[in-house]
Amino acid sequence: MQASIQRKASADPTADVVFETRELSRHYGSGDTLVKALDQVSLTIAPREFTAIVGPSGSGKSTLLQLMGGLEAPTAGEVYLRGQAISAMSGRDLSDFRRDHIGFIFQAYNLIPVLTAAENCEYIMLLQGVPKAERQARVDSMLNRVGLSGKADRRPAQLSGGQQQRVAVARAMVSQPDIILADEPTANLDSQTGSDLLDMMHELNRREGMTFVFSTHDPMIMERASRLIQLRDGRIESDEVRA
Ligand SMILES: Nc1ncnc2c1ncn2[C@@H]1O[C@H](COP(=O)(O)OP(=O)(O)OP(=O)(O)O)[C@@H](O)[C@H]1O
């Protein structure tokens, strides 16, 4: 009995882990100017978590998110997404993997200014070779879910900051990634707009099971988070599961 349970568990060791970091470090400079932005951080993220990474300025939050997303290379340690070592990939393999498995939401929205809201959402699926009819159906459905179906043909400059960030959420979700990494997504929004955006992401998390990891100073994100990871000086100071 015991043996069969163990065999079943080892058949898919990543089933209950989306993300894992092992002894992850990122150092800048050397000698007297050495900064351990991240220092041997090990953590796992389970499916459907709504995790906030918090901590004082300079504690390593953005660095951790950048390393988790493969946007920066670690000095030491490993990053795994669904059991695949992102930290061992480079070049085209890394960018293709990132495109297909990770959604990013940035503080400054980072939409392509010459494309409409719909085209911004469609862009990654174009690169993935998703057929046109499916692209359009997914974009329509996603823009509807973020409350922007009437604004599909507007370019970013014709949208408010909150609406642009909704497009960014739709763009991150529409290619159905394993996880969404959001770096201070509400930092440029007024509190009502930020609160509405968070309610929307929380709803997507609960209804569709999308896994989110935020780096943030925003108390509104902390209130809604199912898990709070507190960093200090590049290390995990506390890790609290709340739901
Ligand atoms: N490119 C870099 N070169 C040198 N030091 C860096 C670099 N990037 C980050 N650091 C340093 O690493 C440490 C962690 O920075 P990081 O941006 O991850 O912190 P943070 O918690 O996100 O801060 P904030 O809340 O202010 O955004 C800081 O001491 C920072 O100065």
Question: What topology emerges from the helices and strands here?
Answer:
Blueprint: H1 2-11, E1 19-28, E2 35-45, E3 50-54, H2 61-68, E4 76-81, E5 84-85, H3 91-101, E6 102-106, H4 117-128, H5 132-145, H6 161-174, E7 179-183, H7 191-208, E8 212-215, H8 219-224, E9 227-232, E10 235-241
Parallel strand pairs: 3-8, 3-9, 6-7, 7-8
Antiparallel strand pairs: 1-2, 1-4, 4-5, 9-10
Helix pairs in contact: 4-5, 4-6, 5-6, 6-7
Adenosine-5'-triphosphate binds next to strand 2 and helix 2.
Protein name: ABC transporter ATP-binding protein
Pfam family, one: ABC_tran
Domain ABC transporter: 19-243
Low-confidence stretches: 1-11
Helix fraction?
25-40%
Basic shape: globular
Beta-strand content bin:
25-35%
How many separate helices? Answer: 8
**Number of beta-strand segments:** 10
Q: Regarding CATH, which class?
A: Alpha Beta
Number of domains: 1
Which H/E pattern describes the elements?
HEEEHEEHEHHHEHEHEE
Mean pLDDT: 91
CATH homologous superfamily assignment: P-loop containing nucleotide triphosphate hydrolases
CATH architecture: 3-Layer(aba) Sandwich
Radius of gyration: 19 Å
Major sheet size, sense and barrel closure = 6 strands, mixed
How far do the termini sit from each other? 32 Å
> What compounds are bound to the protein?
adenosine-5'-triphosphate
What is the CATH fold-level name?
Answer: Rossmann fold
Task: Report the structural category.
Answer: alpha/beta
Protein name: ABC transporter ATP-binding protein
GO molecular function: ATP binding; ATP hydrolysis activity; transmembrane transporter activity
Keywords: ATP-binding, Nucleotide-binding, Transport
Family: Belongs to the ABC transporter superfamily. Macrolide exporter (TC 3.A.1.122) family.
